[in-house]
């Protein structure tokens, strides 16, 4: 999957997934799990809608989740959820942006 397409999809998917919080520190583990699940589901749906092979899409999306889990601290996840709940997509994108290049490990060689 193309990384820039995935990045745009993630930002859009996350922005609609959250419920408002007073601050990032109020975000719970359950809400973080919801945010992660939304990201993975958005990835899967994007790949399927593009007609990519299901096995390849599933492998990529699981890898994507793993990359983010390795590189984002709990406080990052809380902040991402909070930004999504506030519909602050640009700031959310800025937080995820530095990690998007790391998704290259998820793309099999051509």
Give me some keywords for this one.
single chain; 110 residues; mainly alpha; 5 helices; 69% helix; 0% strand; elongated
Please render the helix and strand layout as text.
Elements: H1 3-15, H2 29-49, H3 54-71, H4 74-85, H5 89-100
Helix pairs in contact: 1-2, 1-5, 2-3, 4-5
Structure description:
The chain has 110 residues and is mainly α. The protein has one domain (3-104). Helix content is 69%, strand content 0%. The protein is built from 5 helices and no strands. The protein has helices at 3-15, 29-49, 54-71, 74-85, 89-100. The longest helix has 21 residues, at 29-49. The model has no long low-confidence stretch (mean pLDDT 85).
Continuous helix count: 5
State the distance separating the first and last CA atoms: 12 Å
General form: elongated
Task: Tell me the radius of gyration.
Answer: 13 Å
Strand content: under 5%
Largest sheet: none
* Low-pLDDT residue spans: none
The overall number of domains is: 1
Number of strands: 0
Summarize the structure.
This protein has helices at residues 3-15, 29-49, 54-71, 74-85, 89-100. With 110 residues, the protein is mostly helical.
